[in-house]
Design a protein that fits this description.
The complex is a heterodimer of chains A (about 270) and B (about 300). Chain A is α/β, with parallel strands linked by helices. Chain A has a domain at about 1-180: Rossmann fold, CATH 3.40.50. Chain A has helices at about 1-5, 10-40, 55-60, 75-80, 85-95, 125-140, 150-155, 155-170, 180-190, 200-210, 235-240, 245-270, and strands spanning about 70-75, 105-110, 115, 145-150, 170-175, 190-195, 220. A five-stranded mixed sheet of chain A has the order 2-3-1-4-5, sandwiched between helices. A two-stranded parallel sheet of chain A has the order 6-7. The longest helix of chain A is centred in the N-terminal third of the chain and has 30 residues, at about 10-40. Helices cover about 35% and strands about 20% of the residues of chain B. Chain B has a seven-stranded mixed sheet, sandwiched between helices. In chain B, strand 6, helix 6 (about 150-160) and strand 7 form a beta-alpha-beta unit. In chain B, helix 8 (about 245-255) crosses helix 9. Chain B is globular. The interface of A and B includes residues 121, 164 and 167 of A.
Chain lengths: ~270, ~300
C-alpha cells in the first residue's frame, strides 16, 4: 500500500473504490453480454467487444472527475459507464434512439465529458490532445483519458497527435488497451544511434542492416537539433585526419561544384 | 492600383477575430513561427501569443481533430489545412467536421477551416486538386470561395459571428489570388458574401459562372469579347454551399446561355450546371458549357468556349 500512501489515500477509501470498481465491472460484463446477444440477433449493429480490456476501461473511466473528458471509440463504452453513463443511455444509443442526431455505437455526452466516436481512425486521439492542450494552458487541473488500441497507433494522425501532445504538454492519459501487437514489436527494433552530420556513420549503419540480424528491422536514429545546418562537416574532417584531403584539394572541389552549378542554372534559364 | 492584397485581407480578418474573441485560436502546420506557407498568419503569433497561434503537424485529420478538442474545451478553432494536401484535406473535413457535427452537434457556432486551393506558378503536384468537388456535397458544412480581398475578409469575419448561422465554415482560399490587389476594406464586413453570389459584370449575350481564381479569368475573357461584339456577364458564386441558385438562374435567364468557368479537375462545375439547368431550363438557348483552367492560355480557352456556346 506504499502507492496509496504516496497519493495520500486512506486504505479504507481505497477499499471503497475497489468495491465500486468490482460493482461497475459486474455491470459492464452484464451489459457486454446483452449487447453481444442483441448484435447476434440482428437487433442492434455489431458492437466490438471490450473483452479483456473491460477492466482497464472501467478503471480509467472511474478515475475521471467532473470537468475531465473521456475520448475513445465505440468499443470503450465500459469507460463511459464507469464515468457515470447510465445503462439506459447506453442502450438508447445502441438502438440508435438517443437524441435526434445519434449514431449507433458512438457516444457523446457534453455534460459528462464523453466523446466516443465510431470510425474515427485516430481522430479521437487528436481530439483528446486538443482538449488536453487547452487544459494545460488554463491550468484547470482537468485531464483527458484517451483509449486506443495498437491498430490506432499505426495511423498517421495518431502519430501526429502524439507528437503534438508532447509539444503542447497536453494533459492526456493515453490508455493503450487490447491485444499486444505492433507497439510491442517497435521496442524490439534494433536501434543504432548515429550523428546526422556524418554520412559515413549512416552509410555503415545501413551496411550493418544489410548484413546482420536477418529478418529484424533496424532503427537508425539520426535525429538532430532544430538548427538547420550541419554543426560540423564531420566527414571532411575525418578525411583530413587521414591525410586524404588537403586544403588545395578542398578548394579544387569547391571550384568544380561552383562551375557545375553555374552551367546547370544557365542552361535552365535559357530554356 | 492601391488597395489590399487578398492574403493581407485574410491576415487582417484573422487578427481582428483574435482581438475581438478571446476564445479564438489559430492552428495549422507552420502557421505560427513561419507565418504560414503563404504568409497569411505572419506576425500573429508575436502579437497574440504562442497559446493562441499554434503550430501543428502537417496532417489534416489530426489538425481537425485538435480543433474538435479545442471546441470541446470551449475554444473557437480557426484552422489552416496544408495546401499540398487539399484533396486529402477535403476527405478529412467531411469526416472530421461534417460527421462530428452529425454525431455531436458541437461543430457549429463557429468552427472555421481555411484551405489554400488551386494552381499557382511553381506550385506543387497536387495544385490542380479541386476540394469543392468533395466538399460541395457534404452535409452540415458551409463552403465559400472568395475572389476579392473584401470577400475573403468578410467571409472570415462573418463566419465567426453566430448571427450568420452556426454551420462550420470552410473557406477555400485561391492561392493564385493571394497577391492580387483589390479595393481597400470597408468598415463593416459584408455578411452576404457567406451566402450569396455577386453579379460581377452585366451582359446580355452570355453569362459566365465562376468562383475563386476563375473569376478574374472570366472577367478578362468577357472584356476581350467586347471586341468580338458580345456583351458577356460574369457571376461570382462566392458561396458554393449553399449555392445561390436564385442569382445564378436570374442571370442565365437574362442571356439564355451559360458557361461555367472553373479551376481544376473533377470540379464542382457539373453540379453548378445541373442546378442552373433545373432553375432556368425553359430559358436556355444552348447547352451549358464547362471550361476548366489547365494551361497557361486559360483566358483564350474561356473565350473559345464562350464563342462555341454562342454558336460560333
Amino acid at each position: 500500500m506504499d502507492v496509496l500512501a504516496g497519493l495520500g489515500v486512506d486504505p479504507s477509501e481505497d477499499a471503497r473504490i475497489l468495491g465500486r470498481l468490482v460493482e461497475i465491472i459486474a455491470h459492464a460484463r452484464g451489459a457486454e453480454e446483452l449487447l453481444q446477444r442483441l448484435a447476434r440477433a440482428g437487433q442492434i449493429r455489431p458492437t466490438p467487444p471490450a473483452g479483456r480490456a473491460l477492466a482497464a476501461m472501467v478503471g480509467a473511466g472511474h478515475a475521471l472527475e467532473p470537468g475531465d473528458w473521456l475520448f475513445g471509440t465505440a468499443r470503450d463504452w465500459p469507460a463511459a459507464l464507469a464515468h457515470g453513463l447510465t445503462h439506459e443511455a447506453l442502450f438508447m444509443q445502441a438502438f440508435g434512439r438517443r437524441h435526434e442526431r445519434t449514431i449507433p455505437g458512438a457516444l457523446f455526452d457534453r455534460e459528462l465529458g464523453v466523446s466516443l466516436s465510431e470510425g474515427s481512425h485516430g481522430g479521437h486521439v487528436a481530439e483528446a490532445v486538443g482538449f488536453g492542450a487547452i487544459a494545460e494552458q488554463r491550468g484547470s487541473g482537468h485531464i483527458a483519458v484517451c483509449c486506443l488500441g495498437s491498430g490506432t497507433l499505426t495511423l498517421p494522425e495518431t502519430v501526429a497527435s502524439l507528437v503534438w501532445a508532447i509539444e503542447t504538454r497536453a494533459r492526456v492519459a493515453f490508455l493503450l488497451r487490447g491485444p499486444k501487437a505492433s507497439i510491442e514489436r517497435l521496442v524490439m527494433m534494433h536501434r543504432v544511434p548515429v550523428s546526422s552530420d556524418s554520412a559515413h556513420r549512416v552509410y555503415w549503419a545501413v551496411a550493418e542492416a544489410r548484413t546482420s540480424r536477418p529478418g529484424l528491422p533496424m532503427f537508425i536514429d539520426a535525429r538532430h537539433g532544430h538548427e538547420g545546418q550541419a554543426a560540423e562537416p564531420l566527414d571532411a574532417r575525418e578525411l583530413q585526419g587521414r591525410g586524404l584531403l588537403s586544403p588545395e584539394l578542398e578548394r579544387a572541389l569547391q571550384a568544380e561544384v561552383t562551375s557545375a552549378l553555374s552551367a546547370a542554372r544557365a542552361k535552365a534559364e535559357q530554356r | 492600383m492601391s488597395g489590399i492584397a487578398l492574403v493581407d485581407a485574410v491576415r487582417q480578418a484573422l487578427a481582428e477575430v483574435l482581438a475581438e474573441r478571446p476564445d479564438a485560436v489559430l492552428l495549422g502546420c507552420d502557421i505560427a513561427t513561419y507565418g504560414g506557407p503563404f504568409r497569411a498568419t505572419t506576425g500573429l503569433k508575436e502579437r497574440f501569443g504562442a497559446e493562441r497561434v499554434l503550430d501543428t503537424p502537417p496532417n489534416p485529420a489530426a489538425i481537425l481533430g485538435f480543433s474538435r478538442g479545442l471546441k470541446l474545451a470551449g475554444k473557437l478553432p480557426i484552422c489552416e489545412l496544408p495546401p499540398e494536401l487539399a484533396a486529402r484535406a477535403a476527405g478529412a473535413v467531411v469526416d472530421g467536421v461534417g460527421r462530428f457535427e452529425a454525431r455531436t452537434g458541437e461543430a457549429g457556432g463557429p468552427f472555421v477551416v481555411r484551405i489554400p486551393v488551386g494552381r499557382v506558378a511553381h506550385g506543387m503536384l497536387s495544385d490542380g486538386d479541386s476540394p469543392e468537388a468533395a466538399l460541395g456535397f457534404a452535409a452540415g458544412l458551409r463552403v465559400v470561395c472568395p475572389s476579392r480581398p473584401v470577400d475573403a475578409w468578410s467571409m472570415i469575419r462573418a463566419a465567426v459571428d453566430p448571427r450568420y448561422g452556426r454551420n462550420p465554415t470552410i473557406v477555400l482560399e485561391p492561392k493564385a489570388l493571394y497577391r492580387r490587389l483589390g479595393a481597400p476594406l470597408p468598415d463593416e464586413p459584408d455578411a452576404t458574401a457567406l451566402t450569396t453570389a455577386r453579379r460581377a459584370r452585366a451582359g446580355a449575350d452570355l453569362t459566365l459562372l465562376a468562383w475563386g481564381a476563375a473569376v478574374p479569368v472570366a472577367l478578362e475573357a468577357a472584356e476581350r469579347m467586347t471586341a468580338d461584339g458580345f456583351e458577356v456577364g460574369v457571376v461570382d458564386l462566392r458561396s458554393l454551399v449553399p449555392l445561390d441558385t436564385a442569382t445564378l438562374a436570374e442571370a442565365v435567364r437574362e442571356t439564355g446561355r451559360a458557361l461555367v468557368v472553373h479551376d481544376g479537375a473533377g470540379s464542382f462545375a457539373g453540379a453548378v450546371a445541373a442546378e442552373v439547368m433545373r432553375e432556368a431550363f425553359l430559358h436556355l438557348e444552348a447547352p451549358i458549357g464547362l471550361v476548366s483552367g489547365d494551361d497557361e492560355d486559360w483566358v483564350v480557352r474561356v473565350r473559345e468556349a464562350a464563342l462555341a456556346t454562342l454558336g460560333f
